[in-house]
Known about the structure:
Layout: E1 19-21, E2 26-28, E3 38-46, E4 52-59, E5 64-71, E6 76-83, E7 96-99, E8 104-109, E9 116-121, E10 127-130, E11 137-145, E12 150-156, E13 167-173, E14 180-181, E15 188-193, E16 199-206, E17 209-217, E18 223-229
Amino acid sequence: xxxxxxxxxxxxxxxxxxxxxxxxxxxxxxxxxxxxxxxxxxxxxxxxxxxxxxxxxxxxxxxxxxxxxxxxxxxxxxxxxxxxxxxxxxxxxxxxxxxxxxxxxxxxxxxxxxxxxxxxxxxxxxxxxxxxxxxxxxxxxxxxxxxxxxxxxxxxxxxxxxxxxxxxxxxxxxxxxxxxxxxxxxxxxxxxxxxxxxxxxxxxxxxxxxxxxxxxxxxxxxxxxxxxxx
Length: 230
């Protein structure tokens, strides 16, 4: 069997966005200074007023990850410019969410040494605030509640004294306040919300502990009762 695989030095196709003025049937040039060697260009989206479009640029080598905005006249600028001297984990530690109503961006980064969330002004590119912080990591985001400006996420290492690989569920406000750890037991967790969102079922276990199933209250994470111990 043989398999064609491009090696360093081989000529490779390069994808770049191309902008057209439909009315004038004319291409509008876009500077490629910010996207010289793309591994991928994804998440292309126009603003509601058609004044610009944005996309996620992942540079070959994975030491640069950018949210780039291109205005209707072809001017390109980096809204988010994430850089690393080593490696950006664009699969396991990457989250990019745009809030259409406010123009804000929620972004995941290891820039302070721990994997955390940041709130950006999507127009200016300024970091409004760091949403999560501390000697623990955000593992994934489950829900962005735009109406209440809250983020539901999973974390590792957030419960002192527990194995840092155990998964816990948490909630935090966009401005970084009001952090609530919704799960408590010494183990790795999975939860299931009630239809009205007021309660959730929390199941946790360890290699040396059969599953424990609890009913908890969403507002503060407090235990209502233990439902079952296997």
